[in-house]
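Repro:
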Amino acid sequence: MSDILHIPPSQGPGEQPAPPPAGDPELSKLEPAAAPAEQEAAVEAPVPERQLEVDADLAAAWVQEETDPELQQVRQRIVDSIDCVSFDTFRAALHTTAEQLQETLQGQHYAMLWDSKPHSSKRWVSQLLAPDIAANPPAAQTFFTSGWERMNGCPTVERLVAQGLTTFVVPDDAIYSGEQIIQRSVRPIYELTHTPEFRQRYPDAHIKMVITAPYMSSRFLESNIVKALTAEGFIEIVPPAHIMPTLTERLTSEEQAILAKHEGRLTPDGDVFYQAPTTVFDHRIPDGHSFPDEVRGVFASTPQKPYDLPGTPYYAAEEQLFETYKAPLLQQLNQR
């Protein structure tokens, strides 16, 4: 079966069918779109080949390059706070998350939204989740590129809602600041579904976005935007298997006082991003917005993301799937 289920072309505003209620048995009749033969045989999700660890010698050198004994203490605390999550541990956490997701959905039909581009983590995570959510798999799965979608009036969401799918699940491996998932997934759908035109077309549709990841930061969970959208009922956060504390939360009061005395400067180049967690995975080290760049040198090498390896069958299949999603969007734009 194709990864991307068929979504019929949108109709004119006056011709949109009323959305069937959630749980409508007609949803079970949705048929997958025709797909190239190579897409029909599912390409198994790749896994990381090596275990990521802090290099003891590199870590010691990073600590010792600081001559101030107090700042050496803080550097050592940062090294000690790094959590290297093995792939086996990640898979176990993902299994727990799948159980929580099923509990949250309660058998409700839903669509699953991936990243805005191929070779990113969301589709990879959805494939790893698949065996554990087989009792209630997504009725549709698709990439979601907010820029193209917004320029076209979010046709993907319109078509899914017209089919009665009003719950959108956004999976990921780990959520750090949450900025990407809010800006690229939640915000464009929120804006579309709160327009008068959309409400007129679908007066009874209650849109909800379900965000799920086995690892989430305390910073994301406690953010004002998450609290506000949760209170409104627009998003629901599936309880993560692990909450990632920020670097600030890892430091003792004494160490925080040391940093305050030095105006927060731990390195000659500037401030460390203390609101970032210090959690890394066998399949990736997060970027500088989600993991302190200044500490990256304690690893002997950077892991290659298994879902972003050019020349592999997985990479090629995902390229084709993305083209299936992208082509009609660009065609609509070109016709304007």
